[in-house]
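In response to a reviewer's request, we include the raw inputs and outputs for one of the modeled complexes. The two entities were modeled together in a single run.
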Amino acid sequence: MWLFAALAAIWWVWSAGSRSVYFPPLKSILRVLWRQWVTGPARTELASSLEHLLAGYLLAAVIGIGAGALLWSLRHVREATSPYLYFLYVLPAPVLVPAAMTLFGIGFTMKVVIIAFAAVWPALLNTLDGMRGVDLVKLDTSRVLGLSRTRHVLQVVLPAAMPQIVAGLRNSLQVSIILMVVSEWVASTGGIGDYMRNAQESFDYLGLWSGIIVIAVIGTLANLLFVVLENRVLHWHYGARIVEGAR
Amino acid sequence: MTVGTDEETAQTPVVSLRHVRKVYAGGTGAPGSAGRRRVALEDITFDVARGEFVCVVGPSGAGKSTLLRCLAGLMPPTSGEALFEGEPLRSVPAGIGVVFQDYGRSLFPWLTVSRNVDLPLRVRGIPRTARADRVTEVLASVGLADAARQYPWQLSGGMQQRVAIARALAYRPDLLLMDEPFASVDAQTRFELEDLILRVRDSFEVTVVFVTHDIDEAIYLADRIVVLSRSPGVVSEIVNITLPRPRDQIATKGDEAFARYREHLLGLVMAR
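The model returned the following C-alpha coordinates for the whole complex.
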Protein backbone atom coordinates (compact mmCIF):
# COMPACT_ATOMS: atom_id res chain seq x y z
CA MET A 1 0.00 0.00 0.00
CA TRP A 2 2.86 2.40 0.83
CA LEU A 3 4.40 1.67 -2.56
CA PHE A 4 1.14 2.56 -4.28
CA ALA A 5 0.92 5.81 -2.32
CA ALA A 6 4.55 6.63 -3.13
CA LEU A 7 4.09 5.99 -6.87
CA ALA A 8 0.89 8.03 -6.95
CA ALA A 9 2.68 10.86 -5.15
CA ILE A 10 5.61 10.72 -7.59
CA TRP A 11 3.18 10.82 -10.52
CA TRP A 12 1.32 13.74 -8.94
CA VAL A 13 4.45 15.82 -8.31
CA TRP A 14 6.24 14.89 -11.51
CA SER A 15 3.23 15.64 -13.74
CA ALA A 16 2.11 18.76 -11.86
CA GLY A 17 3.73 21.25 -14.20
CA SER A 18 3.23 19.21 -17.37
CA ARG A 19 2.03 21.12 -20.45
CA SER A 20 2.06 18.08 -22.71
CA VAL A 21 -1.41 17.23 -24.06
CA TYR A 22 -0.46 13.54 -23.99
CA PHE A 23 0.68 13.46 -20.36
CA PRO A 24 -1.59 15.86 -18.48
CA PRO A 25 -1.14 16.51 -14.75
CA LEU A 26 -2.61 13.81 -12.49
CA LYS A 27 -4.58 16.52 -10.73
CA SER A 28 -6.41 17.39 -13.97
CA ILE A 29 -7.01 13.71 -14.73
CA LEU A 30 -8.57 13.17 -11.32
CA ARG A 31 -10.70 16.28 -11.71
CA VAL A 32 -12.10 14.91 -14.98
CA LEU A 33 -12.50 11.50 -13.35
CA TRP A 34 -14.63 13.04 -10.64
CA ARG A 35 -16.72 15.23 -12.95
CA GLN A 36 -17.26 12.55 -15.58
CA TRP A 37 -17.36 9.19 -13.80
CA VAL A 38 -18.51 9.97 -10.29
CA THR A 39 -20.88 12.92 -10.64
CA GLY A 40 -21.19 13.34 -14.39
CA PRO A 41 -22.63 11.76 -17.54
CA ALA A 42 -20.08 8.92 -17.82
CA ARG A 43 -21.77 7.24 -14.86
CA THR A 44 -24.22 5.59 -17.22
CA GLU A 45 -21.28 4.21 -19.27
CA LEU A 46 -19.79 2.81 -16.10
CA ALA A 47 -23.09 1.20 -15.15
CA SER A 48 -23.61 -0.44 -18.54
CA SER A 49 -20.01 -1.73 -18.54
CA LEU A 50 -20.57 -3.34 -15.17
CA GLU A 51 -23.77 -4.92 -16.46
CA HIS A 52 -21.93 -6.39 -19.43
CA LEU A 53 -19.14 -7.66 -17.21
CA LEU A 54 -21.41 -9.20 -14.61
CA ALA A 55 -23.74 -10.89 -17.09
CA GLY A 56 -20.92 -12.15 -19.32
CA TYR A 57 -18.78 -13.41 -16.46
CA LEU A 58 -21.59 -15.17 -14.62
CA LEU A 59 -22.69 -16.83 -17.84
CA ALA A 60 -19.11 -17.97 -18.49
CA ALA A 61 -18.76 -19.31 -14.95
CA VAL A 62 -22.03 -21.26 -15.00
CA ILE A 63 -21.53 -22.68 -18.50
CA GLY A 64 -17.84 -23.33 -17.85
CA ILE A 65 -18.36 -25.33 -14.65
CA GLY A 66 -21.46 -27.06 -16.00
CA ALA A 67 -19.94 -28.06 -19.33
CA GLY A 68 -16.66 -29.00 -17.65
CA ALA A 69 -18.50 -31.32 -15.26
CA LEU A 70 -20.57 -32.77 -18.09
CA LEU A 71 -17.49 -33.49 -20.19
CA TRP A 72 -15.84 -35.06 -17.15
CA SER A 73 -18.74 -37.48 -16.77
CA LEU A 74 -19.11 -38.33 -20.47
CA ARG A 75 -15.81 -39.84 -21.54
CA HIS A 76 -16.77 -40.45 -25.17
CA VAL A 77 -18.09 -36.95 -25.69
CA ARG A 78 -14.93 -35.60 -24.07
CA GLU A 79 -12.63 -37.58 -26.33
CA ALA A 80 -14.64 -36.63 -29.41
CA THR A 81 -14.82 -32.92 -28.63
CA SER A 82 -11.45 -32.21 -27.03
CA PRO A 83 -9.58 -31.23 -30.25
CA TYR A 84 -12.36 -28.76 -31.13
CA LEU A 85 -12.39 -27.34 -27.62
CA TYR A 86 -8.71 -26.51 -27.85
CA PHE A 87 -9.23 -25.11 -31.34
CA LEU A 88 -11.84 -22.69 -29.97
CA TYR A 89 -9.76 -22.03 -26.87
CA VAL A 90 -6.75 -20.73 -28.81
CA LEU A 91 -8.92 -18.53 -31.03
CA PRO A 92 -8.51 -14.91 -29.80
CA ALA A 93 -12.03 -13.78 -28.95
CA PRO A 94 -11.63 -10.21 -30.31
CA VAL A 95 -11.49 -11.58 -33.87
CA LEU A 96 -14.98 -12.92 -33.31
CA VAL A 97 -16.44 -9.51 -32.55
CA PRO A 98 -17.33 -8.68 -36.17
CA ALA A 99 -19.02 -12.05 -36.61
CA ALA A 100 -20.83 -11.63 -33.31
CA MET A 101 -22.04 -8.20 -34.44
CA THR A 102 -23.67 -9.65 -37.53
CA LEU A 103 -25.27 -12.37 -35.45
CA PHE A 104 -26.30 -10.48 -32.32
CA GLY A 105 -26.24 -6.82 -33.34
CA ILE A 106 -24.27 -4.23 -31.43
CA GLY A 107 -26.22 -4.15 -28.20
CA PHE A 108 -26.09 -5.78 -24.79
CA THR A 109 -26.49 -9.34 -26.11
CA MET A 110 -23.46 -9.17 -28.38
CA LYS A 111 -21.18 -7.90 -25.62
CA VAL A 112 -22.36 -10.49 -23.12
CA VAL A 113 -21.93 -13.26 -25.70
CA ILE A 114 -18.39 -12.14 -26.55
CA ILE A 115 -17.36 -11.85 -22.89
CA ALA A 116 -18.90 -15.22 -22.07
CA PHE A 117 -17.34 -16.91 -25.09
CA ALA A 118 -13.85 -15.72 -24.22
CA ALA A 119 -14.13 -16.28 -20.48
CA VAL A 120 -15.76 -19.71 -20.57
CA TRP A 121 -12.56 -21.57 -21.48
CA PRO A 122 -10.44 -21.09 -18.37
CA ALA A 123 -13.44 -22.06 -16.23
CA LEU A 124 -14.33 -25.06 -18.38
CA LEU A 125 -10.85 -26.49 -18.87
CA ASN A 126 -9.86 -26.02 -15.22
CA THR A 127 -13.08 -27.67 -14.06
CA LEU A 128 -12.49 -30.63 -16.35
CA ASP A 129 -8.84 -30.91 -15.32
CA GLY A 130 -9.57 -30.50 -11.63
CA MET A 131 -12.30 -33.15 -11.65
CA ARG A 132 -10.12 -35.60 -13.57
CA GLY A 133 -7.24 -35.05 -11.18
CA VAL A 134 -9.03 -35.96 -7.93
CA ASP A 135 -6.90 -38.16 -5.67
CA LEU A 136 -7.60 -41.86 -6.21
CA VAL A 137 -7.75 -42.49 -2.45
CA LYS A 138 -10.62 -39.99 -2.25
CA LEU A 139 -12.44 -41.79 -5.06
CA ASP A 140 -11.94 -45.14 -3.31
CA THR A 141 -13.11 -43.62 -0.02
CA SER A 142 -16.23 -42.32 -1.70
CA ARG A 143 -17.04 -45.81 -2.99
CA VAL A 144 -16.31 -47.41 0.35
CA LEU A 145 -18.64 -45.01 2.16
CA GLY A 146 -21.36 -45.91 -0.34
CA LEU A 147 -21.98 -42.46 -1.86
CA SER A 148 -24.53 -42.34 -4.67
CA ARG A 149 -23.43 -40.91 -8.01
CA THR A 150 -24.97 -37.51 -7.24
CA ARG A 151 -23.42 -37.31 -3.78
CA HIS A 152 -20.13 -38.55 -5.17
CA VAL A 153 -19.99 -35.69 -7.67
CA LEU A 154 -21.39 -32.95 -5.43
CA GLN A 155 -19.77 -33.89 -2.13
CA VAL A 156 -16.44 -35.39 -3.14
CA VAL A 157 -15.35 -34.65 -6.71
CA LEU A 158 -16.43 -31.01 -6.94
CA PRO A 159 -15.06 -29.96 -3.54
CA ALA A 160 -11.80 -31.79 -4.24
CA ALA A 161 -11.52 -30.03 -7.60
CA MET A 162 -12.57 -26.66 -6.17
CA PRO A 163 -9.08 -25.14 -5.77
CA GLN A 164 -8.46 -25.62 -9.47
CA ILE A 165 -11.96 -24.53 -10.47
CA VAL A 166 -11.48 -21.31 -8.51
CA ALA A 167 -8.12 -20.72 -10.21
CA GLY A 168 -9.95 -21.05 -13.54
CA LEU A 169 -12.67 -18.63 -12.44
CA ARG A 170 -10.06 -16.06 -11.48
CA ASN A 171 -8.53 -16.37 -14.92
CA SER A 172 -11.99 -16.03 -16.49
CA LEU A 173 -12.54 -12.81 -14.58
CA GLN A 174 -9.45 -11.20 -16.05
CA VAL A 175 -10.43 -12.29 -19.56
CA SER A 176 -13.94 -10.90 -18.97
CA ILE A 177 -12.62 -7.44 -18.12
CA ILE A 178 -10.47 -7.36 -21.27
CA LEU A 179 -13.37 -8.41 -23.49
CA MET A 180 -15.72 -5.98 -21.79
CA VAL A 181 -13.55 -3.06 -22.97
CA VAL A 182 -12.80 -4.54 -26.41
CA SER A 183 -16.43 -5.33 -27.27
CA GLU A 184 -17.58 -1.87 -26.20
CA TRP A 185 -14.75 -0.21 -28.09
CA VAL A 186 -15.82 -1.85 -31.33
CA ALA A 187 -19.59 -1.69 -30.98
CA SER A 188 -19.84 1.97 -29.85
CA THR A 189 -23.19 1.76 -28.09
CA GLY A 190 -22.09 2.65 -24.59
CA GLY A 191 -19.74 1.45 -21.91
CA ILE A 192 -16.27 2.48 -20.82
CA GLY A 193 -14.72 1.20 -24.05
CA ASP A 194 -17.10 3.33 -26.11
CA TYR A 195 -16.35 6.38 -23.96
CA MET A 196 -12.62 5.88 -24.44
CA ARG A 197 -12.88 5.45 -28.19
CA ASN A 198 -14.84 8.72 -28.36
CA ALA A 199 -12.22 10.42 -26.20
CA GLN A 200 -9.45 9.15 -28.46
CA GLU A 201 -11.20 10.31 -31.61
CA SER A 202 -11.79 13.80 -30.18
CA PHE A 203 -8.22 14.13 -28.80
CA ASP A 204 -9.61 14.24 -25.26
CA TYR A 205 -6.52 12.87 -23.51
CA LEU A 206 -7.81 13.75 -20.07
CA GLY A 207 -10.90 11.63 -20.74
CA LEU A 208 -8.73 8.80 -22.06
CA TRP A 209 -6.54 8.81 -18.96
CA SER A 210 -9.55 8.91 -16.68
CA GLY A 211 -10.98 5.86 -18.48
CA ILE A 212 -7.73 3.95 -17.92
CA ILE A 213 -7.89 4.68 -14.22
CA VAL A 214 -11.56 3.64 -14.04
CA ILE A 215 -10.77 0.29 -15.70
CA ALA A 216 -7.82 -0.25 -13.36
CA VAL A 217 -10.09 0.45 -10.37
CA ILE A 218 -12.77 -1.94 -11.67
CA GLY A 219 -10.15 -4.66 -12.19
CA THR A 220 -8.70 -4.17 -8.73
CA LEU A 221 -12.06 -4.13 -6.96
CA ALA A 222 -13.29 -7.18 -8.89
CA ASN A 223 -10.15 -9.07 -7.92
CA LEU A 224 -10.50 -7.99 -4.32
CA LEU A 225 -14.09 -9.21 -4.21
CA PHE A 226 -12.95 -12.45 -5.81
CA VAL A 227 -10.27 -12.99 -3.19
CA VAL A 228 -12.79 -12.43 -0.39
CA LEU A 229 -15.16 -15.03 -1.89
CA GLU A 230 -12.26 -17.39 -2.61
CA ASN A 231 -11.10 -17.26 0.99
CA ARG A 232 -14.59 -18.19 2.13
CA VAL A 233 -15.03 -21.08 -0.30
CA LEU A 234 -11.49 -22.44 0.01
CA HIS A 235 -10.73 -21.64 3.65
CA TRP A 236 -10.13 -25.36 4.27
CA HIS A 237 -7.67 -25.52 1.39
CA TYR A 238 -5.53 -22.63 2.58
CA GLY A 239 -5.83 -23.74 6.20
CA ALA A 240 -4.55 -27.20 5.30
CA ARG A 241 -1.74 -25.75 3.21
CA ILE A 242 -0.55 -23.52 6.04
CA VAL A 243 -0.56 -26.49 8.42
CA GLU A 244 1.35 -28.59 5.88
CA GLY A 245 3.91 -25.84 5.46
CA ALA A 246 4.40 -25.60 9.21
CA ARG A 247 5.08 -29.33 9.57
CA MET B 1 -27.56 -57.76 14.12
CA THR B 2 -28.11 -61.43 13.53
CA VAL B 3 -25.00 -62.71 15.27
CA GLY B 4 -25.64 -66.13 16.77
CA THR B 5 -29.41 -66.01 16.24
CA ASP B 6 -29.24 -68.21 13.22
CA GLU B 7 -27.05 -71.28 13.17
CA GLU B 8 -26.34 -70.93 9.49
CA THR B 9 -25.46 -67.21 9.61
CA ALA B 10 -23.12 -67.84 12.48
CA GLN B 11 -21.29 -70.45 10.50
CA THR B 12 -21.04 -68.52 7.23
CA PRO B 13 -17.59 -66.97 7.16
CA VAL B 14 -17.63 -63.18 6.93
CA VAL B 15 -15.00 -63.37 4.24
CA SER B 16 -14.24 -66.24 2.00
CA LEU B 17 -11.58 -66.27 -0.67
CA ARG B 18 -11.57 -69.16 -3.17
CA HIS B 19 -8.54 -69.51 -5.44
CA VAL B 20 -8.33 -65.77 -5.90
CA ARG B 21 -5.93 -64.75 -8.62
CA LYS B 22 -5.21 -61.18 -9.70
CA VAL B 23 -3.24 -60.31 -12.79
CA TYR B 24 -2.55 -56.73 -13.74
CA ALA B 25 -2.70 -56.30 -17.48
CA GLY B 26 0.32 -54.54 -18.95
CA GLY B 27 0.27 -51.49 -21.19
CA THR B 28 -0.88 -49.08 -18.51
CA GLY B 29 0.26 -46.18 -20.65
CA ALA B 30 3.89 -46.26 -19.59
CA PRO B 31 6.21 -46.76 -22.54
CA GLY B 32 7.61 -50.26 -22.81
CA SER B 33 5.05 -51.72 -20.43
CA ALA B 34 2.80 -52.89 -23.25
CA GLY B 35 1.92 -56.52 -22.97
CA ARG B 36 3.75 -57.03 -19.70
CA ARG B 37 1.47 -58.75 -17.23
CA ARG B 38 2.14 -58.83 -13.54
CA VAL B 39 0.72 -61.51 -11.30
CA ALA B 40 -0.12 -59.86 -7.97
CA LEU B 41 -2.04 -62.70 -6.30
CA GLU B 42 -1.89 -66.39 -7.06
CA ASP B 43 -4.42 -68.94 -5.79
CA ILE B 44 -5.30 -67.28 -2.48
CA THR B 45 -7.72 -69.30 -0.38
CA PHE B 46 -8.76 -68.58 3.21
CA ASP B 47 -11.80 -67.76 5.33
CA VAL B 48 -12.33 -65.23 8.07
CA ALA B 49 -14.88 -66.22 10.71
CA ARG B 50 -17.24 -63.77 12.44
CA GLY B 51 -15.47 -61.88 15.21
CA GLU B 52 -12.00 -62.93 14.12
CA PHE B 53 -9.01 -60.59 13.91
CA VAL B 54 -6.90 -61.66 10.96
CA CYS B 55 -3.66 -59.97 9.97
CA VAL B 56 -2.10 -60.26 6.54
CA VAL B 57 1.67 -59.84 6.47
CA GLY B 58 4.26 -60.15 3.77
CA PRO B 59 7.17 -58.32 2.20
CA SER B 60 6.42 -55.34 -0.01
CA GLY B 61 5.29 -56.40 -3.44
CA ALA B 62 3.59 -59.48 -2.05
CA GLY B 63 0.18 -58.17 -3.08
CA LYS B 64 -1.13 -57.19 0.37
CA SER B 65 -2.89 -54.07 -0.85
CA THR B 66 -4.25 -55.86 -3.89
CA LEU B 67 -5.69 -58.51 -1.60
CA LEU B 68 -7.37 -55.86 0.52
CA ARG B 69 -8.84 -54.12 -2.51
CA CYS B 70 -10.31 -57.44 -3.66
CA LEU B 71 -11.72 -58.03 -0.16
CA ALA B 72 -13.31 -54.58 -0.16
CA GLY B 73 -15.00 -55.10 -3.51
CA LEU B 74 -13.03 -52.18 -4.94
CA MET B 75 -11.50 -54.47 -7.54
CA PRO B 76 -12.66 -57.80 -8.95
CA PRO B 77 -10.26 -60.75 -8.92
CA THR B 78 -9.09 -61.96 -12.34
CA SER B 79 -10.27 -65.42 -11.42
CA GLY B 80 -11.52 -67.20 -8.33
CA GLU B 81 -14.13 -65.89 -5.92
CA ALA B 82 -14.21 -63.33 -3.15
CA LEU B 83 -17.32 -63.74 -0.98
CA PHE B 84 -18.62 -61.41 1.70
CA GLU B 85 -21.17 -63.11 3.97
CA GLY B 86 -21.65 -65.73 1.30
CA GLU B 87 -22.31 -63.28 -1.53
CA PRO B 88 -19.81 -62.60 -4.32
CA LEU B 89 -18.40 -59.08 -4.09
CA ARG B 90 -19.36 -56.92 -7.04
CA SER B 91 -19.09 -53.50 -5.45
CA VAL B 92 -18.37 -52.32 -1.92
CA PRO B 93 -21.17 -53.68 0.29
CA ALA B 94 -22.76 -51.44 2.94
CA GLY B 95 -21.44 -53.77 5.66
CA ILE B 96 -17.76 -53.17 5.02
CA GLY B 97 -15.68 -50.35 6.49
CA VAL B 98 -12.21 -49.53 5.18
CA VAL B 99 -9.37 -47.58 6.77
CA PHE B 100 -6.63 -46.59 4.34
CA GLN B 101 -3.00 -45.99 5.20
CA ASP B 102 -2.98 -42.40 4.05
CA TYR B 103 -5.46 -40.65 6.32
CA GLY B 104 -4.43 -37.28 4.85
CA ARG B 105 -5.74 -38.38 1.47
CA SER B 106 -8.72 -40.38 2.71
CA LEU B 107 -10.33 -37.80 4.99
CA PHE B 108 -12.19 -34.94 3.35
CA PRO B 109 -10.40 -31.71 4.31
CA TRP B 110 -13.42 -29.54 3.43
CA LEU B 111 -15.54 -31.23 6.11
CA THR B 112 -15.13 -30.97 9.86
CA VAL B 113 -14.34 -34.10 11.85
CA SER B 114 -17.98 -34.68 12.79
CA ARG B 115 -19.18 -34.12 9.22
CA ASN B 116 -16.59 -36.57 7.91
CA VAL B 117 -17.95 -39.17 10.31
CA ASP B 118 -21.53 -38.16 9.55
CA LEU B 119 -21.26 -38.56 5.77
CA PRO B 120 -21.70 -42.36 5.56
CA LEU B 121 -24.65 -42.07 7.96
CA ARG B 122 -26.38 -39.51 5.73
CA VAL B 123 -25.79 -41.80 2.77
CA ARG B 124 -27.61 -44.55 4.65
CA GLY B 125 -30.58 -42.30 5.31
CA ILE B 126 -30.34 -42.37 9.10
CA PRO B 127 -32.48 -39.63 10.70
CA ARG B 128 -30.71 -36.53 11.90
CA THR B 129 -30.97 -36.98 15.66
CA ALA B 130 -29.86 -40.59 15.48
CA ARG B 131 -26.92 -39.48 13.36
CA ALA B 132 -25.84 -36.85 15.84
CA ASP B 133 -25.93 -39.42 18.67
CA ARG B 134 -24.00 -41.92 16.62
CA VAL B 135 -21.30 -39.40 15.70
CA THR B 136 -20.86 -38.35 19.33
CA GLU B 137 -20.71 -41.96 20.48
CA VAL B 138 -18.20 -43.15 17.91
CA LEU B 139 -15.95 -40.10 18.32
CA ALA B 140 -15.94 -40.67 22.08
CA SER B 141 -15.00 -44.31 21.56
CA VAL B 142 -11.85 -43.29 19.67
CA GLY B 143 -11.05 -40.57 22.21
CA LEU B 144 -11.92 -37.60 20.02
CA ALA B 145 -15.01 -36.22 21.76
CA ASP B 146 -13.48 -32.73 21.84
CA ALA B 147 -12.33 -32.61 18.21
CA ALA B 148 -15.74 -32.83 16.55
CA ARG B 149 -15.84 -29.27 15.28
CA GLN B 150 -12.24 -29.10 14.11
CA TYR B 151 -11.02 -29.88 10.63
CA PRO B 152 -8.96 -33.06 10.15
CA TRP B 153 -5.89 -31.12 9.03
CA GLN B 154 -5.86 -29.27 12.34
CA LEU B 155 -5.17 -32.57 14.14
CA SER B 156 -2.02 -34.67 14.55
CA GLY B 157 -1.48 -37.70 12.31
CA GLY B 158 -2.54 -40.16 14.99
CA MET B 159 -5.71 -38.21 15.69
CA GLN B 160 -6.52 -38.03 11.98
CA GLN B 161 -6.28 -41.79 11.72
CA ARG B 162 -8.66 -42.02 14.70
CA VAL B 163 -11.13 -39.91 12.72
CA ALA B 164 -10.80 -42.33 9.80
CA ILE B 165 -11.41 -45.27 12.17
CA ALA B 166 -14.44 -43.50 13.66
CA ARG B 167 -15.84 -42.84 10.19
CA ALA B 168 -15.42 -46.50 9.22
CA LEU B 169 -17.08 -47.69 12.44
CA ALA B 170 -19.89 -45.13 12.49
CA TYR B 171 -22.19 -47.17 10.27
CA ARG B 172 -21.50 -50.35 12.28
CA PRO B 173 -19.93 -52.50 9.56
CA ASP B 174 -19.67 -56.26 10.01
CA LEU B 175 -16.18 -56.22 8.57
CA LEU B 176 -13.44 -53.66 9.03
CA LEU B 177 -10.60 -53.72 6.51
CA MET B 178 -7.42 -51.86 7.37
CA ASP B 179 -4.57 -51.27 4.94
CA GLU B 180 -1.35 -50.56 6.86
CA PRO B 181 -3.29 -48.02 8.88
CA PHE B 182 -0.53 -47.19 11.34
CA ALA B 183 2.41 -47.12 8.94
CA SER B 184 2.65 -43.33 8.83
CA VAL B 185 2.52 -42.51 12.54
CA ASP B 186 5.33 -42.55 15.11
CA ALA B 187 6.00 -45.64 17.24
CA GLN B 188 4.42 -44.30 20.44
CA THR B 189 1.21 -43.34 18.63
CA ARG B 190 1.21 -46.67 16.83
CA PHE B 191 1.09 -48.57 20.15
CA GLU B 192 -1.80 -46.40 21.33
CA LEU B 193 -3.68 -47.00 18.10
CA GLU B 194 -3.07 -50.76 18.29
CA ASP B 195 -4.66 -50.85 21.72
CA LEU B 196 -7.46 -48.60 20.50
CA ILE B 197 -8.32 -50.90 17.63
CA LEU B 198 -8.42 -53.92 19.98
CA ARG B 199 -10.80 -52.01 22.26
CA VAL B 200 -13.20 -50.81 19.59
CA ARG B 201 -13.16 -54.20 17.92
CA ASP B 202 -14.58 -55.63 21.16
CA SER B 203 -17.12 -52.90 21.74
CA PHE B 204 -18.36 -52.81 18.13
CA GLU B 205 -18.15 -56.61 17.69
CA VAL B 206 -16.56 -56.20 14.31
CA THR B 207 -14.53 -58.67 12.30
CA VAL B 208 -11.17 -57.24 11.28
CA VAL B 209 -8.78 -57.94 8.42
CA PHE B 210 -5.64 -55.93 8.99
CA VAL B 211 -2.83 -55.63 6.46
CA THR B 212 0.60 -54.72 7.80
CA HIS B 213 4.27 -55.21 7.02
CA ASP B 214 5.11 -55.09 10.72
CA ILE B 215 5.35 -58.61 12.17
CA ASP B 216 5.29 -57.49 15.82
CA GLU B 217 2.11 -55.54 15.16
CA ALA B 218 0.50 -58.54 13.47
CA ILE B 219 1.32 -60.93 16.34
CA TYR B 220 0.16 -58.41 18.94
CA LEU B 221 -3.22 -57.88 17.27
CA ALA B 222 -4.17 -61.09 15.52
CA ASP B 223 -6.03 -64.31 16.16
CA ARG B 224 -4.56 -65.59 12.92
CA ILE B 225 -1.89 -64.35 10.56
CA VAL B 226 -1.96 -64.98 6.83
CA VAL B 227 1.60 -64.83 5.51
CA LEU B 228 1.99 -63.88 1.86
CA SER B 229 5.26 -64.69 0.15
CA ARG B 230 7.22 -62.57 -2.28
CA SER B 231 5.51 -62.05 -5.60
CA PRO B 232 3.65 -63.64 -7.11
CA GLY B 233 1.58 -63.47 -3.91
CA VAL B 234 0.75 -66.88 -2.58
CA VAL B 235 -0.19 -67.82 0.97
CA SER B 236 2.94 -69.38 2.40
CA GLU B 237 1.37 -70.22 5.77
CA ILE B 238 -1.49 -69.33 8.09
CA VAL B 239 -0.33 -69.04 11.69
CA ASN B 240 -2.72 -69.27 14.67
CA ILE B 241 -1.80 -66.86 17.44
CA THR B 242 -2.89 -68.25 20.80
CA LEU B 243 -1.51 -65.48 23.01
CA PRO B 244 -3.96 -64.70 25.85
CA ARG B 245 -6.29 -61.70 25.69
CA PRO B 246 -6.58 -58.93 26.70
CA ARG B 247 -3.17 -58.17 25.29
CA ASP B 248 -0.75 -55.75 26.81
CA GLN B 249 2.02 -53.87 25.05
CA ILE B 250 4.63 -54.81 27.65
CA ALA B 251 3.49 -58.19 28.97
CA THR B 252 2.39 -59.66 25.62
CA LYS B 253 5.41 -58.48 23.72
CA GLY B 254 7.69 -59.75 26.51
CA ASP B 255 6.10 -63.19 26.43
CA GLU B 256 8.33 -66.09 25.35
CA ALA B 257 5.63 -67.32 22.99
CA PHE B 258 5.61 -63.90 21.33
CA ALA B 259 9.33 -64.27 20.60
CA ARG B 260 8.78 -67.73 19.12
CA TYR B 261 6.01 -66.47 16.81
CA ARG B 262 8.26 -63.62 15.82
CA GLU B 263 11.13 -65.90 14.90
CA HIS B 264 8.88 -68.21 12.93
CA LEU B 265 7.14 -65.42 11.01
CA LEU B 266 10.34 -63.56 10.29
CA GLY B 267 11.69 -66.77 8.77
CA LEU B 268 8.63 -67.05 6.55
CA VAL B 269 8.68 -63.43 5.43
CA MET B 270 12.41 -63.33 4.76
CA ALA B 271 12.40 -66.65 2.85
CA ARG B 272 13.20 -66.33 -0.85
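As requested, we also summarize the result in words. Residues 44 and 247 of chain A are 53 Å apart (CA to CA). The interface with chain B takes residues 135, 137-138, 140-141, 143-148, 151, 155-156, 159-160, 162, 236-237, 239-240, 243-244 of chain A (CB under 8 Å).
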